[in-house]
Amino acid sequence: MRWIRDLGITIGEMPTGVWNAITDVAGVRVGHATLISGEGGLRPGEGPVRTGVTVVLPHSRDLYQQKVRAAVHTINGFGKVAGFEQVRELGTIEAPIALTNTLNVGLVLDAIVQYSIRQNPSIGIRPDSGSVNSVVGETNDSYLNDIQGRHVRLEHVLGAIENASSGQVHEGSVGAGTGTMCFGWKGGIGSASRLLPADLGGYTLGALVQSNFGSPHDLILAGFPVGLHLSPPMALPKPPPPLAPGSIMIILATDAPLSSLQLGRLCVRASAGLARTGSMLNYGSGDFVVAFSTAQLVPHQSPASTMPLVGLANEAAILNSLFRAVIESVEEAVLNSLAAAQTMTGRDGHIAHALPLDQVHELLQSKP
Questions:
Q1: For the domain that residue 63 is a member of, what is the CATH number?
Q2: Residue 319 and residue 189: Cα distance in Å, rounded?
Q3: Residue 64 belongs to what domain range?
Q4: Tens digits of per-residue pLDDT, 265-311?
Q5: Residue 185: how many CA atoms within 13 Å on its side-chain side?
Q6: Residue positions annotated with a catalytic role
Q7: Total domains, the chain
């Protein structure tokens, strides 16, 4: 697996964490289940399968009992996310966050509910337990995948949760990014992180994306319009849709003690990171952001609105630094999703080519 920094390219000015990934935020874990099977012509409901699920767990404890403060933001709403309204209302997340393909959202949501009930059998039974809110996001992988088959099932979601780990995040054509594309090239899962200076708290901000957006000519890499000089080979027998607006899911994590309102302000800045890669936030794109803080857990019996919040001593300066961290992390996470992805052939012989990093390197070396 490669990252964009393997080309000698540094995105932004802030330092990264050890892994340059969302898992640099202590306690955060990421897990994947990757489904690849079959080849040849599309057989709706049967294959070929090029899809999966990715889960992000904010901490290793019971999320239902120890929720995290959170926020969500819709940049462009042409998508099928679940669970956003309760996060907007209560400001917490109480279950693993899951990413998958568009038509699989319902089954993945059901799997997260089953997982939560297994951990907390009183959900939906005892009045003080209430229900559980599952946050599930998606992008459309139907160019490569038999999306009607909804092949991601309970066992795959549970497997992704079980194998979720800290440390290095597997990126590229894995999990929810198995069948996705980005700027006409093979996209997928990407991650990055940034560290704030010690005098601003030394906090960490990490991002994870599921990239599936952009037209080839729009790609910008480290400020250089790569897309104007490099295009994917003509895909035969059938090229991607001409506009290919696509979508993206973005998850932000931090250990800074932020309120839901402050986390929402971080979410808004993710669009600036997307713009730096060339995203046009097209009419047909679903662009969604989820953010959470691991700093202050919220016990189930103590609603976030009644929990005392330890605020930031220098709010304006710290938030400005976190805003920059979001922009740089999202930009680099998108580029890492491209750099780590491998060429993939899917249904009906459709091909998503990996971004040719050697040619990108030559372009960047020769730019004025």
A1: 3.60.70.12
A2: 26
A3: 4-231+240-348
A4: 999 999 999 999 999 888 888 999 999 999 999 999 876 555 666 67
A5: 26
A6: 247, 285, 287
A7: 1
